[in-house]
């Protein structure tokens, strides 16, 4: 099945262009170099699946990059905000998000990624409120991608 076939099989909200409400968290993750970006690589698509009304803001992230040979690599992890009575009040810094369950896939095709994402969306019955897709594949360079994220 071609990449475009998977896109057409997704619910309409998945094909809508979107901003990036999670841009600052994504930039923080990129600062930590979770994707181990190498020269010639760039971001591909970034996904965030949220559990509605979870007390710690639990979310599952999947970040992908495109390698110079056209293949993809991904990292996936859960992230939550630890409970803290201060919550950034009274001059105390808000607690830093905690990552867990980090897993990497060093090599996969675009079609494999699409199959994985379609399966996750079906399994969790994703809605626009519980799933964010940031498609950066149309940017020519990593610098353009970072600039776009910073502008969000």
Structure description:
The protein has a 5-stranded antiparallel beta sheet. By secondary structure, it is of the alpha+beta class. The protein starts with a helix and ends with a helix. The longest helix is centred in the last third of the chain and has 15 residues, at 110-124. Mean pLDDT is 78; it is low at 1-19. β2 and β3 form a beta hairpin. 27% of the residues lie in helices and 28% in strands. It has 4 helices and 5 strands. It has one domain (22-151).
Number of DSSP helices?
A: 4
User: Strand order of the main beta sheet, please?
Assistant: 4-3-2-1-5
Task: Report how far apart the termini are.
Answer: 34 Å
SSE ordering? HHEEEEHEH
Largest sheet: 5 strands, antiparallel
Number of domains: 1
Q: How does the helix and strand content classify structurally?
A: alpha+beta
Shape: globular
- Beta-strand proportion: 25-35%
pLDDT averaged residue by residue: 78
Instruction: State Rg.
Output: 16 Å
Report the helical percentage.
25-40%
Instruction: Say how many strands there are.
Output: 5
Uncertain stretches of 5 or more adjacent residues: 1-19
> Quaternary status of these chains?
single chain
Q: Could you list some keywords that capture this structure?
A:
5 strands, 27% helix, 4 helices, five-stranded antiparallel β-sheet, alpha+beta
Provide a short characterization of the protein structure:
The protein is 27% helix and 28% strand. With 152 residues, the chain is of the alpha+beta class. It has one domain (22-151).
């Amino acid at each position: 099945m071609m990449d475009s076939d998977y896109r057409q099989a997704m619910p309409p909200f998945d094909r809508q262009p979107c901003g990036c409400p999670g841009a600052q968290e994504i930039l923080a993750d990129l600062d930590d170099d979770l994707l181990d970006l190498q020269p010639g690589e760039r971001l591909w698509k970034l996904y965030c699946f949220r559990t509605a009304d979870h007390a710690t803001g639990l979310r599952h992230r999947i970040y992908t990059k495109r390698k110079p040979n056209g293949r993809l690599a991904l990292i996936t992890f859960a992230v939550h905000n630890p409970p803290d009575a201060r919550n950034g009040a009274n001059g105390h810094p808000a607690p830093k998000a905690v990552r867990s369950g980090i897993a990497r896939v060093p090599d996969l095709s675009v079609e494999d990624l699409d199959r994985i994402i379609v399966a996750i969306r079906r399994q969790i019955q994703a809605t626009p409120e519980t799933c964010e897709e940031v498609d950066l594949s149309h940017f020519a360079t990593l610098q353009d991608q970072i600039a776009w994220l910073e502008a969000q």
